[in-house]
Design a protein that fits this description.
Order of helices and strands: HHH
Strand content: under 5%
Distance between the termini: 20 Å
């Protein structure tokens, strides 16, 4: 059990993921703030979905991001 288990992602990946989740929540909150009937205003149809899409893109980047490895540190 002396082997150190490696996680699938690094700290930077998880930080990007958390930021993406926060952006997603903000986007959904923006969509609920629309005062037009059935959310057909600017906030519900334009701004909110754009912010949500940015949040999903951040999740994609967090999954695909590979941090630079320092080989001198491992030896």
């Amino acid at each position: 059990m002396s082997e150190k288990r490696k996680l699938a992602f690094n700290k930077s990946n998880y930080m990007i993921m958390i930021t993406g989740v926060v952006v997603l929540v903000i986007g959904f909150i923006i969509m609920t703030m629309d005062t037009q009937p059935y959310g057909f205003g600017f906030l519900g149809l334009t701004l909110g979905p754009i912010v949500v899409m940015i949040g999903f893109l951040m999740q994609f980047v967090a999954i695909m991001y590979k941090p630079k490895t320092n080989t001198d540190k491992d030896q």
